[in-house]
Batch of 3 targets.
Target 1
Amino acid sequence: MTRLTLTDALMIEPPEGVEPGGRVDVEIADGAVAEIRPAGQGAPRGEPVPATGRLLTPGLINGHHHSHEHYHKGRYDRLPLELWMNYVRPLSPIPLSARHVYLRTMVGAIQALRSGTTTIVDDLNVSPVLIPEHVDAALQAYEDIGIRALVGPTLFDRPFFRALPFVEEEFPPELLARLSAVKATAPDAVLAFVRAKAVERHPREARVGILAAPSAPQRCTDGFLRQVRAMADEIVLPVIIHVQETRLQAVTAQRFYGRSMFAHLDALGFLKPATSLIHAVWVTPEDIRLIAASGASVQHNPNSNLKLGSGLMPMREMLEAGVNVSLGTDGCGSIDTVDMLRAVASTALVQKLRGDVPERWIDAGEAFAAATTGGARALGQADRLGRVAVGMRADLALWRLDSIPFVPLNDPLRQLVYGETGASLDRLLVDGRVVMQDGRLSLIDEAAILSEIGAAHAEIEPALADAEATVEAMMPAYRRIVARCRDETIDPAVLPARLA
């Protein structure tokens, strides 16, 4: 059994028996926290790891990103979701090798670790044709770099272009025919693949595991959603699903279901604990009540919602209703980064635009909690992740207190949330294993990997450009649909999500 002891670390909230601001020794055995005691109270067991002058925190949990978008970093701006997303899911798939996928996955995994993230959730697009070797390559990248990952091959049985209103009216018949003729792996086959992988890599047992990732209600038939829910319940898997990220999706809900997507999912029996409703920007008080009653979580992605102009989720109203909120970055195609420190800071900053009562603003502690304990609860792993406590997995970060974000030191948590860029991250552990030491990734040759990623991107860039060109043929119809939905009224009870 591997043992090590972090010595003389500063904890933000030390356990009972340690004075506030006091230092602690943290013993780690077999990947878990075995004991936390006042610094110097007993000899270190196993390898001593000096942590003097270091702030000890739980690693961050990135509850949502898309690794399939990493080669698209920096390519798009001033596009709303319904226009932008077509470019990262082109009709003509970009020809990739398993090594391309491995390297693509590393783009996000490296930045995740460098921003203090120890757990990442990857909603991995495998359409139109599932290539099992590509999924295995993504899993292997997470294994090799040492991060904890939950990978969800995206599940849907309604083509993305059918997930909008007015398609039959606005898409030319020849374009609809071409879109409908795209050959794709049968949805049931993808679902069976995910089931088999989940049994092999259950997230309660495997550091790199599988979860269920139905894309969105409007991209799934009710029958398919029930199939996914039944599988997740049977195997006990976390579930993630995009719900009402944009105003257009609120319009879509009214036209498809005659009610909100939250109400529709509730009627299907889909809303349950360990189920993350990604984004949930356009909501009514009744939607929030339904979410709270179900035990489902809301997954906040502030930066992608800002860049795509989607709006601002009402986090205070969610928390006051008893809804668990977690945080994520979303994909590099939209927000260009997997930096969770930015997501935490943005949560504590932009949420202050909601309302004029400062006592109700989201503060640094609530934003950090959403990125740690909130993320763990959303994944059904609050008993294992998200806290520095005895019995929890040792997914831990040590931050240098002699760096500029912490000098002078007044409130370490606020200074971490509002001032840290990742430059102060000294050491990172996942399952008690050191994956970063002295600011260097321990398990991979980062420079060599980055060089290979650059070469791989140069190799496939012409195919990226060609794929984007094929999407342009769809844009006039999509823009007309966006304009029509902009003019449609929505439920007046929806809480304000955008500035006028």
Target 2
Amino acid sequence: MALLDIGLPGMDGYELARRLRSYPGTKAAVLMALTGYGKDEDMSRSQDAGFDHHIVKPVEPDNLIALILQK
């Protein structure tokens, strides 16, 4: 499981998710985008990049814990 920010300098979170999906050791990991980007197009991009969840900041701790416990 990995919590990734989308707006990273250099390699953004979308590219990082795509790369993680390409490696056998992290291909099946649960990827969560934790980001300030909450438009429909942002959520679509995160899904296309391989994220399992798109969480918009500020996150409710109980919601994040519930997602983590699902795995």
Target 3
Amino acid sequence: MAAVAVPHISGCRPTSLPPVRPITRGPAHHWFGYYDKLAFDATERYVLGMRVGFEGRPPTSTDAIRVGMVDLGDGDRWIDLGRSTAWNWQQGCMLQWLPGGPRRIAWNDHVGDAVGSRVLCLDTPGEPRALPRPLCCVAPDGSFGLSIDFVRAGALRAGYGYAKAATAPRSPDSRGLRRAPDDDGIWRVDLATGESRLVLSIAAADAVLPAPHNWDRSMRHWLHHVAVSPSGARMAFLHCAVRRDGSFGARLMTATVEGEDARVVVPGARVSHFCWRDADTILA
């Protein structure tokens, strides 16, 4: 790790720095993603993480990572909890704590020949429960999650999606060839039943004005990085589009969690990383 120089700000010189220590050890590689997910549990004792034995290349649909947590109260002990073959280096497998009720975690994984997710209750013995769709984020009350097609995202933007399972049948859109489909987009997933429904299609997002001035009709679209507001009423997301030469753009949008009242937050600007500050404010 490289040293970091802290610039002096007049009248704000720190007298000491907080203690820092590694909480995982090699030879395997450990990390946590995504930046808008909280790694710590409510007690701040357990830290979620992922572990894999290689670096330096994109993962395939057969490369498995271990999902676990570090017990800060027991010598930083690694507790193995499961595995996933649906992940990337940028976001991992969207490993996250589920709010409300008993201690539960969720992560994305191949379920059969499709990408889905798994929910594990840490306070009761048993295998994780499988859901038919992957999760981007979870509502503040833990009742539902929002989902996208990570295979399409990976086909259009390398490094931000998942490889299709080797056993999955071929489909006309297996590499995201359709420009802006009306049967794919953001899905709402009931975390109790696993039932899902499309609440905002890619085509509907593409139709929201104002359109970016430098986007053209040849670009292929996808929706990504979905986040529910702290009130649970609205969602923010990136509407992305890529050209044939690989260059792409992204605009920040919001809508209700039912896909209504879709609007562009910053017209004309390319926006990337963002998070909700409160129910009415977004930092980006």
